[in-house]
C-alpha cells in the first residue's frame, strides 16, 4: 500500500479524487491544503501547509511516507503557480516521494502562443521544473468537464460554469461548425482513471482519458430532446472567436460577479478556437480507456438526461 498526497484535496477536482482514493484498498491518502474547509468532512487526514516553506513540506512528505503527490491546485495566476512550483521542489527533496501528477485537468496547452490563455504559462513552468527533477511525473488531459451539463441535478464537487451549452435557459453558442469532435469527462470517471493509473509500472506524458467523445451539435440535440423544445442557437465564427468575442449566454450573467465579462469572454473564445481547431479531439489509441476497459464511463446522454422533465 502506498501513500498518496492530494494537494488542493478539499476542493472541486481534488475532493473527487480523494473520494475515489478513500475507496481504494491499495492506497492511503492525505490531503494537503492551505486552509481547513470546515464545510467538508473528509475521512483522510487533512494537513494545513505553507507551500512556500519547502523544508516543512518536505518533512511532512517524508514523515507521512508519501510516495506520490497529486496536485489539484487551481493554477490560475502567478501565486498559485508558485505554490505548485514549491510543491515540486519539496517532492523532489523528499526521500520517500517518487511520483508527481501536475495540475491541469483539462485540455492541451497550445504550441501557438497566440492561442494560449494567460494562466497556461504557469502550468508550463511546472512541467519545466519537473523535467529537472528525478521524479516520475505526468499530467492528465481529459477534455472538458461533463459535470457542468447536468448541474444542478448531477452529483459533482465542481461549481457551475457555462460554456457553449446553457441548458437551463435553452440556449447555445457553438464554436465553429458544431461538428468538430469534443472530449468530455465526468469528474467521477476521471478520478477512477487517476486511481487506476497509480498502479501502472511506468507513466506516459500526458495521460489521456475521457468519458465520451461527441460533437456540440449532437450534445445540443440531446439537450433539446430532454427539455422538450428547441434552443436558441448561435454559431460563433472563427473570426469572431479570434477577436476575443463569443455569443453571450443568459447563464453568463451570474458568473460576472466573480469573473469579469471581458476575462470570461477572452477565455471562452480561446476554448472555442480549441474546439474549432480540433484541439479537444483527443487520441483514443493510447488512452487510459484502452488500458483500463473495465472502467465504465458516463455518457453525455446520461448527464444531460438529468434535465428530463425539468
Descriptive notes:
This protein is α/β, with parallel strands linked by helices and 310 residues long. It is 33% helix and 20% strand. The protein contains ten helices and 13 strands. The strands form three sheets. The chain has a seven-stranded parallel beta sheet with strand order 3-2-1-4-5-6-11, with helices on both faces. α4 (120-131) links the parallel β5 (99-106) and β6. The N and C termini lie far apart (45 Å). 43% of the residues are buried.
Question: Largest sheet at a glance?
Answer: 7 strands, parallel
Q: Regions with pLDDT < 50 over 5+ consecutive residues?
A: none
Please give the share of residues in helix.
Answer: 25-40%
Supply Rg. Answer: 20 Å
Report how far the terminal alpha carbons are from each other: 45 Å
Give me the count of strands: 13
The structural class is alpha/beta
Shape: globular
Number of continuous helical runs: 10
